[in-house]
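Reviewers asked in the last cycle whether our approach scales beyond single polypeptides. To address this, we selected a multi-component target totalling 596 residues and predicted its structure end to end. The input consisted of the following lines:
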Amino acid sequence: MNSEIFSAVVLAKDQLQKILDDLSVGFITPTEESKDTSILPPFKKLGVLIDLEDIEDEETKIPIWKNVVNTKTTQSQYYSCIQCRRQLPTAHLLDLHITEQHDLYFAASVERGDKPHYTCYIEECPLKFFQPADRKDHCIKVHKFPANYRFDQGKTPNKAKIRTKKATNVMDVHNDRDVTMDLSDERVPNIKAFSFGHPTQRTFNSRKDKALIDMRAMKEALDDME
Amino acid sequence: MEGTPLSSNTVAASVQISDTALRLRIREYARQQRKELRTNTTDALRFGLGQIKDKISELENLSIRDVHGMASRIKRRKHATSEDMYRLSHAFLQGNENINAFAGVQGATQVIIKEFTGTQMQRQIEAAECLCNYSLGDAHVCEKITTMAGSYLVTFLDNQEPRLKRSCLWTLANILATCSKSASMLLQMQLASKLWKLYTLPASDTHGYQEDAGICLHLIATRAAASIREEDRRYIAENLHKKQSGETAAEYYMYIVFQLELVNRERDLCAAHFQHLLDFFMENVNFDPSTVAGKLRIVYGVRVIANIFATGPANCQLELQADQLVHALNKLFALREPGLTQDLMQLLKNLIGAQLLDNELLMEHIRVYA
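The resulting structure, written as structure tokens, was:
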């Protein structure tokens, strides 16, 4: 066929049919054509040149702690958790962080343990796991992540970062959430008082050794009453 | 008298039309200028290995000894300052021996990666640019970068900071071009899906990641197509329609589709996908076949379409586009390029075999040159 190509005569229908009869229906595969690199655009490895003046300018202009806005693009760069101020590089990682660290419903679902909840660190990977350790193993084995992946949610966060935003409003009921969540827990925090903005505290009993301190005893007492 | 209001209306309408056209042109001009300026601030600063010495004669010459000194210092302090990273970046650009010297110092690369994954964005950008220059090294250096920082390079593709994101893309391109083992490792991190997302960003996105993502995908398609994960292949197949022929870096599209064997291996492709590929091909035919981009579009477009017909698509409504297809094929046969003609003959055979058109009529209208 190649020898016939360059003459400018249009093939007759039967000639074309004859050529086509010699071919069979099939795929053109890359392995056959992989040697044909002449039409591929050339690629040259390139580095990048940093301008030191840029670095010095930015260092003098921006305080070291101010990491929120890029001077060139004025875009917020980090995804930060509003509760613990942890900064994460992607929306997916922040999503995982908020769900796993601050979502009580998620915690309750995990405790129930009926289905896997821990999503893979790679957004495109659809797998979920029962334990953070399983996810870590998966990321290391399948996705070739380093064992000390920096954005691992299973890691204990820095003390400075876990400081939650403390409620300053005196109208709040202290520790009420903890009481409702951890009824069965031995370490039930002491419910001190309800405060309505007045210096005088109003409480059922301020003594720690009785009443509301031992929630289990309280519960048993209520059961007995019934 | 009656003609006056009509003519004034016509004038008003024509003024309004020209006004709108002018506004559109100004808007387009402003968009182009913004894009150009952005490109100038990024792409203009790129150099190949050793090229910097020829371009900037007054540059400080950094030897292996200097690199050893800097590596020891950052290791001792467990931290690299902006100036350290700046000097290291320059040293890497100056020659491969500097890169090898740094790679030989145990624990030095970890310090750069620590800065790269830190919480100060400026340092992260500098570390990313340092890693980009470091990736100019040989395969063993690229392997080291991939093992230690590959997951972060892939993660930061979802970051919002354009300079960091772009540096990651450049580093990934250098690694993919150097070492197939590293490429395979990066593909395990589902890099291909992330790259496809960037590649198919809408044309309105002026950051221009499409070009860099297209280059990375083209490198994967050339060197590591066999290592691509099935999930990635499926993701790309499902999102084939998100790239249009007129968009940035669309010349790589058909090449990627062909090399990744999306048509042959993905059984879930539907009639809409085939239609999109066919429309893409029809538009590709209008490009100049003498340019590299045009050739890439046409040659691989023909192969992809030939493979589509080989699958025998049942729901493909080709009758409506029969004239257009015959015209496109005749135009390509008329180029009389041996390799292309061979692929076109295979396409024709597959088309006839698929029984999508009146084959008799098709044979009458096709013009193949002897």
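Chain B has a mean pLDDT of 88. We regard this as preliminary and will revisit it once experimental data from Aim 1 are available.
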